[in-house]
Amino acid sequence: MNVSVQWEGVYPALLTPFTADDQLDIPLFEKNLNAQLEAGVHGFIIGGSLGEASTLLNSEKIELLSSALAVSAGKVPVLVNIAEQATKQAIACAQDAERNGADGLMLLPPMRYPSDSRETVTYFKSVAKETSLPIMIYNNPYDYKIMTTVAMFEELAEFSNIQAVKESTRDLTNITRMRNAFGDRFKLLGGVDTLALEALLLGCDGWVGGLVDAFPQETMAIYDLAKAGQIAEALEIYRWFMPLLELDIHPKLVQYIKLAATATGIGSEYVRAPRLPLIGAEREQVLNVIQTALAKRPVLV
Hints:
Elements: E1 9-12, H1 26-39, E2 44-46, H2 58-72, E3 78-82, H3 87-99, E4 104-107, H4 117-129, E5 135-139, H5 141-144, H6 150-156, E6 162-167, H7 173-182, E7 187-190, H8 196-201, E8 206-209, H9 216-227, H10 231-245, H11 253-263, H12 280-295
Parallel strand pairs: 1-8, 2-3, 3-4, 4-5, 5-6, 6-7, 7-8
Protein name: Dihydrodipicolinate synthase family protein
InterPro entries: Aldolase_TIM, DapA-like
GO molecular function: N-acetylneuraminate lyase activity
C-alpha cells in the first residue's frame, strides 16, 4: 500500500553509501535512514544527484528502494529519482519503481541532451502518462541547463500526477512567479541548501535537503521554526549552518557531504568512480569547515 505524498516538509536527497569494495553499504544506509526518521523528516528521495544516480545500476536503485521501504515501514513516503537520457528508459525506470513499491518520483529533464521547451515538456508528459505515481519535477537550470518555465508548467498542469516542483533555479523570484501563476496547483520545495530558509519564508511547502544527510536534527529545527513563524530562532541556526550548507553547491558536493556525514557518524567517505575520495589540502579544508561547525553546534531545544 503506497504512502500518500503530501509534498510538505523536509525530504533528504539521500546519499548512497558504499563499502570499501564498491558494493552498496545497506547497513550504513539504514543507519542514516533511522537518524533521519528520528529527526522527523517527511520523506526520502533515492538516487538523486547527491545519491550518485549516474553511477548506480537500476537494480541497485531498487535494492535501495526496498531497504528504504522496510525502514520507513509506512511512516514516510519513499521517492525514486528518474534521471535518464532516453524517454523510453525514463518510462521503464518509472514503471520499475512503481512495481517495486515506490510512493512517488522525482523527475529530471533529459540527461546530456539540452532539450528545448517542446522536447522537455513532451518528455515529462510521456513519463507522466505511463505511471500512476505522483511526480515532482526537478527544475535546476543552473546544473542541468534546462529551465522549466511557467509557460511549460501551464502545459504540464493537465497531468494530475505532476504535483510538485523541486525549485532549484537559484532565482528566488521564481517562487513568487509560480505562486502567482498557479496558486497551490503545484507544491514547491526549495532545492538549494544555501537558499532554503529564504525559500521557506517565500512560501515553499518543503525543503529537499543535502546537508540533512549529515545534520538531520538541525535541518528539521530550521524547517519547524520557520513554519512556526519563529524566524529569529530559525535564522540563528541557519547562520551557524551556512558554511556547511555551502558544501551543497560545489561540484564535489557528494564527497563533501559524505565527509560531513562521516564526521557525524551516519555516513562514510567511500564514493563510486569516477569520483574519488578527497585527499590533501582539499580534504583538510572541508574537514576544517565541518569541525569548526561541530565545535559550535547549537543546542537544540
